[in-house]
């Protein structure tokens, strides 16, 4: 029976009046609040209802905004544990806090709903008397959905100022006792926020589920084949010999964010995913998570065990980093770490000054083994600082350019005994800010690390001048070619202002800059932005992380510049850092460029472009063509040559769906913000070079946070869309284009197009698929 809107309105009026009369005395109405047992076993009516009917709606309508660290009010609806935990008024991302915040990681920092209540989280489900009336009236989730049912959005229009879609907006996060006041002050703020209401059939499903007590069940457990693989891997990682124990610690500290799956145990596009975790308990026993801020913090147990924890929540595009493991990967790890000829005489401790510095804690592991291990999954390692907790906003992203390529020094040329000895002798200069833990004093720390970085670069340059004295070896032969088959050897990073993406291949037009990473630099980026970064740290920790990343970016760029002719190196650097502050310019211009000449011949007036071409030729056998911008068919390919005035009007990431017969093709239009320099921490806008903005159109999906969604149902629409895009001159032009072709937040069929977008994404992305996040969806 359809759920009539008139009935919804009656419910809203009834509940508002009822609860208003109660004057927030929910205990009087429904008894005292206490957490409920909501999880039910599989193959029961409640489990079937949740998994088959309720969970898909929550994933498709709620998780698109409430999925991770940056979910409003920390409300993570991606798992039963997150739904039952509820919400918090305390934001995770706070760039002003003077003292580190207590972590609140779901499934890590508390093991029961009551523990979350003790930490200040409030329920979105009814925790009073479990009756049909109470389950609706005392549920923030139901009241929020109901509030939206009575507040339709103006169809395909820009929403008014009453809606705040800014990333750092102040969230109200009302408890049920506060909800009436919230609804009175913000009648527009029902859920989904700033998006159309659920269809009546969907609302009816959630209504019935909430009314009956919101029982939930977990997804199917791992298969027997997957469990057998886990047994093999946990046996390998938890051997008693020192060599394996040190190697397992190293592997864990680089893989702990990955969504691991056994690609030979499950051939489908939706296998079980697992996290590699530290546990107090050995294989064969239930996992007891060692909950520390960082993966290398003191575990306070006699022995750490490395275990595979089943991931049961919704897979989110913005955090999904799939890693396939199989017998071949296991054999590779054994060859790199176990069969290699070296001795581990003792295990390192967990004191911050040791554990935060991989050049000290893992000094006994061969450099070549560590570097090969990182290179094998370079896309995953780089993704860590893109999709890990550091990914949001200005914490680290305004320290990178909007579009650049990444390549790597060959491990055979970066792990000689001389280099290994060099790293051992200079491991103090390679110390990282995590040694200060989560409450840092930024100015004194920055000065200390700047001095150390200067000393390290001087020593590195001196050694390089010896190695490359005649320049004969300073060629693209230095560059790792992926062992002839590994596409991780060439990567592209796209920054989307307050999020970013890394993909395999050299994608897009020749970029402004490029990074060439050696082992020491690659390792430090990981331990700075991933393993060593605490999203709950104080402003000093976040600031020193950003400032230190300046050093690492400059070093990666310098490695690339050193392959240019000597008289071009400083010219290129000066262009990259136009209008930069004098003090930073002094640091940039210190004499850390090589004295050795390049070993390559350049024949044009554009040696940097020539060098890009040489890199592409050198890596051609392994270059991924998945996102080849130059293979996009006409007329859409014309979007790669938009005038800067039109590009300036574009959001960072736009998804375009084009209908071809009964099929849909997907494209991503990426806006690259140009800068005179990226040396300014607080005045990025003042460094913008708007006339130099570029855009790249690629097939498929790049980015996790679509800002605009465009739908083109036929070729006539494609031609008109491209022509109008080229001719845009003003915000009014852009809004007119959106009126004609976009799926705005207020589009009456928004959710149908959202479902289509995700269905197409599944086809394109396969194992990499995850639910997109709509928190950056623009209101224009």
Could you characterize what this model shows?
The chain has 780 residues and is of the alpha/beta class. The protein contains 27 helices and twelve strands. It has helices at residues 5-22, 26-30, 45-61, 80-85, 113-118, 132-137, 140-149, 179-185, 200-211, 224-237, 242-255, 327-338, 352-355, 358-361, 367-376, 378-387, 417-425, 442-467, 519-529, 539-561, 566-576, 582-588, 607-619, 644-647, 715-727, 731-741, 750-765, and strands at 259-262, 273-279, 305-311, 322-325, 403-408, 491-495, 500-504, 513-517, 653-660, 663-672, 694-699, 708-712. The strands form four sheets. A four-stranded mixed β-sheet has the order 7-6-5-8. The chain has a four-stranded mixed β-sheet with strand order 11-10-9-12, sandwiched between helices. A hairpin with a 4-residue loop joins strand 6 and strand 7. Helix 18 packs parallel to helix 20 and helix 25 packs antiparallel against helix 26. The longest helix is centred in the middle third of the chain and has 26 residues, at 442-467. The radius of gyration is 27 Å and the shape is globular.
